[in-house]
Amino acid sequence: MDPHAYKQEFPILSQRVRGSQPLTYLDNGASTHRPQSVIDAQIQIDTECYSNVHRGAHWLSDVATDRYEESRDRVQQFIGASDNREVVFTSGTTASINLVARGWGDKHLGENDEIVITEMEHHSNIVPWQQLAERTGAVVKFVPIDQSGHLDLEAAEDLISSRTKVVAFAHASNVLGTINPVGDLTRLANAVGAITVLDAAQSAPHMKLNVADLGVDFVAFSAHKMLGPNGLGVLYGRASLLEEMEPVLGGGSMIHSVSVDGYVPAAIPTRFEAGTPAIGQALAFPVALDYLDSVGLDAIHAHEQQLCKLAHRQLIEIPGLTILGPEPPQKTGIVSFVVDGIHPQDLAFALDQQGVAIRAGHHCAMPLHAKLGIPASARCSFYLYNTEEDVAALTAAVRKAVTLFS
Amino acid sequence: MTLIETITKDELIEEFDLFDDWEDKYRFIIELGDGLPAFDESARIECNRVQGCVSNVWLLPHVGDDELLYFTADSDSQLVKGLIAIVIMLFSGKSAELILQFDISDLFERVELTQHISRSRSNGLNSMIQRIKALALAQLHPEA
Predict the structure, then answer these.
(1) In chain B, residues 81-120 whose CB comes closer than 8 Å to chain A
(2) How many domains does chain B have?
(3) A405·B78 Cβ contact <8 A
(4) Residue B111 belongs to what domain range?
(5) What does the CA dihedral A390, A394, A396, A401 come to, rounded to 10 degrees?
(6) Is B3 a domain residue?
(7) CATH number, domain at B101?
(8) Residues of B in contact with A18 (CB under 8 A)
């Protein structure tokens, strides 16, 4: 694949920043950009077919509703779900995980039940479970990571017991890039009758995802990390589990009927989509998925592996620099690092001055950083439009920053 | 005497005007931070920590016999520490009235460093300025 050609299709990336420097965008783990085709679709939607959905007695609403449901079908197909009712539109991964924690968790968990997560989770796959534990008296347990940044599966086996009701974990770490063994964890969870919740925010954009093959009960991801509009996310849930879940938000659209005596919730997935959803975003999302399919998820993954290897090779030459987590190919295209004696924020500021966009901080993974014994790290994350020149710009910028702060 | 203890606000602006690239500017800011008096390690405690999302700032205020407010501070980021030095230069040893009147964003804008005070969630600098202003306000209106 030719990332240079793809890059041309993302107008925002051709900008000059901080003076007249080319933009080297390496913060894709936080959010990706949108190709011209998605931008065009958003404009077309706003100019031709935007209206509220599932309400209308008019032409525009019918058009918008049809396309909204077609988007659901497209997502269903993209993730290999067997039923379009298993695709719930949310505002993002965070909302998706919270929906499971409240909608399923509040109903099924009680005193001393256990929720098993991992030390490498993003806060959005930690805090909803801690809140659930506060509400129900359940306990959250963490599967530790080993020295190389992989999950300790033996420890997972010990932790997952008959008391475990939920096993929730990232498909890929947002800091280390580590790709976790979904099959192993799912087997352990299934053996004790626990549900599995997969945070796919960092995997759905980068590798082919098939929920049937993965065998998990719930999968959460965000459109804005995969070329799509922001403000839209997906919760895939097994139909039988969604059926027994409570609607978390009450309001318009999510009901079958309401009377002064009470309400009857609508069928799934409408039950979970109270209020006016992110209509324009949902309508445009299929265009992003088409783009990803046209490039090919396997090609994207292979390309990111190449860049990741190159970045590892170049960065590790810099004195005092340590890369966190495993080596490729056991990870996605994320490279997080620290440099002795230099605060990651200082690195990020100096890189920013050179037009290189990375992220510095704890990346919403404070327990992971605590485990690693560091307060923060610098993270670069690649996508299909990044090139070998971007890696070279990164390395040169880090070298300059290290010289400046040493 | 270190640079930050002797330089005035106008000299600081003049100095910044001389830089034509970001590296010289950043080097100067790092140098300002290096000139801060050593922070009392026993004061590096939670209640003196001004939390930022990414970097931390520790701020130790005290009111002198002259009723003026004095500050010492530190950060784990070299750049933030240099910017702290500027804040301290402007605010330490001043009266509460003067502190409340002074709009620091003008100066940061003048020397093209506004990105560092607008990123309120990512570094503790903006929170530090807010805390200094709050302390000044509390000194003026102790009953509030």
Answers:
(1) 116
(2) 1
(3) yes
(4) 9-140
(5) 160
(6) no
(7) 3.90.1010.10
(8) 22
